[in-house]
UniProtKB/TrEMBL annotation:
It comes from Actinoplanes hulinensis. InterPro entries: aa-tRNA-synth_I_CS, Arg-tRNA-ligase, Arg-tRNA-synth_N, Arg-tRNA-synth_N_sf, ArgRS_core, DALR_anticod-bd, Rossmann-like_a/b/a_fold, tRNAsynth_Ia_anticodon-bd. The keyword Nucleotide-binding applies. This is Arginine--tRNA ligase. The keyword ATP-binding applies. Monomer. Belongs to the class-I aminoacyl-tRNA synthetase family. NCBIfam families: argS. HAMAP family: Arg_tRNA_synth.
Length: 547
């Protein structure tokens, strides 16, 4: 239940009656009351009246009976104090709703969300963490809101590097080289040979041609590479508790047969220009540092197709075949120009109609204590599986370690960088994943030990009131997170809710309170637990009944 929206709707007719025109009541939280409206101040100049007079007229006109008391303060603010009985009745209604008072969206969309996207034959590293968990949280949230969410894991499984990998795999099958058991070692060994052995490099390039031409043995080797890599990816997803499965894999190879047609259609529409032998699109408004138009290379000079062509093919497929209303790409911020150019070219080609939105969900980097990109002591990129192993070893329960990693990432604005700090992330106090897990487990313990059942909610103490108002903030938090695609707004809300519950429990006896008070407070406890559980689920953080 969105209290802010309710009071907005009650005040809007009163402001319109006083001003003679529609007015946004601008209802906001305030330290001076539960909520506050400062709209009268903005009207003073237009109406040529003191803002306190305008506010007084609005207060006298507004229909807030039984909901809130309104008073005029300062230069013309309307302070709104919600009635305790109304709060209690509203919470009883929320407690009886499986969705905690949050209705499904009235205009569900078909949303295709592209996230994680590792490359075959290379282990996932810490750079894949953010895309994977930010994307998964957004997919969970949009799904829960009632949208038709289609997850896509756009795997890098094609192109020139695969000739190197496949040739090395072919020779490994004959008893030489590394096997696929260790993908990292396999990739490094293949790269060393490619960089140092001219004969191997030649064979690798021929292997690319064989792959592209559908050579049977080469395709079989490629399928082995795909299967082993996807198995490794799924193992990481299972440990992270994300909702990506094998059905969501969509490799670049999916679109290979369409790339020539993509280039031909763009050329027919006059959207491609030859530049140094390559076919490029030059969407308006994109320039390099030298001021020259910035190219989007669709077909390379050697006749091959780059990932711009693949992204265009994937976009066209998602709109025309999957029927997407919205496209979300959860990819690091450095790729923002690339995606803006892809979207511009797709719109010019008619593949991305105005009725369909496309959005790049960018994010910052994970930094080490030195403020630089997180690396191992040897200077290598941190393997994601190694990071999860470290979480297991440091936490008393693996679920705590995974929660610490995921929540640390999701609790800050996705656009910013953050420093990876084990001590802070695993703390059971402060704004951390384990803190939420301990808060939830504590409430579960209270419910197990208390006698009697939850009953109607009564508001008799300030700490009860504060918790009740915090519980009513769940729907606004989800709305605020979904619109701008900002999971940290859910994390912030959950931390504030858990902190408010902690203060409530310190000041209000529950287990040994008299029966009527105990049943009311048990209802507050149960509703807090359900809200925490749902919010943590939307972040992908496991809620533990006991720790």
């Amino acid at each position: 239940m969105n209290l802010e929206s309710l009071l907005h709707d009650r005040l809007a007719p009163a402001f319109a009656a006083v001003a003679g025109t529609p007015v946004d009541p601008a209802v906001r939280s305030s330290p001076h009351a539960d909520l506050q409206s400062g709209a009268a101040l903005a009207l003073a100049g237009r109406l040529h009246r003191p803002p306190r007079e305008i506010a007084a007229d609005v207060a006298a006109t507004a229909d807030l009976t039984g909901i809130a008391e309104v008073t005029v303060s300062g230069p013309g603010f309307l302070n709104l104090t919600v009635a305790d009985d109304w709060i209690a009745a509203a919470l009883d209604a929320i407690a009886g709703d499986p969705r905690l008072g949050v209705p499904p969206v009235t205009d569900p969309k078909r949303i295709v969300i592209d996230y994680s996207s590792p490359n075959l034959a290379k282990e996932m590293h810490v750079g894949h963490l953010r895309s994977t968990i930010i994307g998964d949280s957004l997919a969970r949230l949009l799904d829960w809101q009632g949208h038709d969410v289609h997850r896509v894991n756009h795997i890098g499984d094609w192109g020139t590097p695969f000739g190197m990998l496949l040739e090395h795999l072919a020779e490994a099958a004959d008893g030489t080289g590394h096997s696929l058991a260790d993908l990292t070692a396999f990739y490094r060994a293949a790269r060393v040979r490619f960089d140092t052995d001219d004969d191997f490099r030649t064979r690798a390039r021929l292997r690319v041609v064989a792959l592209q031409n559908g050579d049977g043995p080469t395709r079989e080797l490629w399928r082995r590479l795909v299967a082993q890599s996807e198995k490794a990816f799924l193992g990481v997803y299972d440990r992270l508790g994300v909702t990506l499965g094998p059905e969501h894999f969509a490799g670049e190879s999916t679109y290979q047969d369409e790339l020539a047609g993509i280039a031909a259609e763009l050329a027919e529409k006059g959207l491609l220009t030859e530049s140094d032998g390559a076919l490029c699109a030059f969407p308006a408004g994109f320039t390099g540092r030298d001021g020259a138009p910035l190219p989007l290379i669709v077909r390379k000079a050697d006749g091959g197709f780059g990932y711009a062509a693949t992204d265009l093919a994937a976009l066209r497929h998602r709109v025309s075949d999957l029927g997407a209303d919205e496209l979300l790409y959860v990819v690091g911020s450095p790729q923002r120009i690339h995606f803006r150019m892809v979207f511009a070219v797709a719109r010019a080609a008619g593949w991305l109609p105005e009725t369909v939105s496309a959005e790049h969900i960018g994010f910052g980097s994970i930094l080490g204590a030195d403020g630089k990109m997180l690396k191992t002591r040897a200077g290598d990129t941190v393997r994601l599986s190694g990071l999860l192993d470290e979480a297991d070893s440091r936490a008393t329960d693996p679920a705590l370690g995974i929660a610490a990693i995921k929540y640390a990432d999701l609790s800050g604005d996705r656009r910013g960088d953050y420093v990876f700090d084990w001590d802070r992330m695993l703390a059971s106090t402060g704004n951390t994943g384990p803190y939420l897990q301990f808060a939830y487990a504590r409430i579960c313990s209270i419910s197990r030990r208390a006698e009697g059942a939850p009953g109607p909610i009564r508001i008799t103490e300030p700490a009860e009131r504060a918790l009740a108002l915090a519980l009513m903030g769940f729907e606004p938090a989800l709305t605020a997170a979904a619109g701008p695609r900002e999971p940290h707004r859910i994390a912030t809300y959950l931390y504030e809710l858990a902190s408010t519950f902690s203060r409530f429990y310190e000041r209000c006896r529950v287990i040994d309170a008299e029966p009527e008070t105990r049943s009311s407070r048990l209802a507050l406890c149960e509703l807090t637990a359900r809200t925490l559980h749902t919010g943590m689920f939307l972040l992908g953080v496991e809620a533990l009944d006991q720790i």
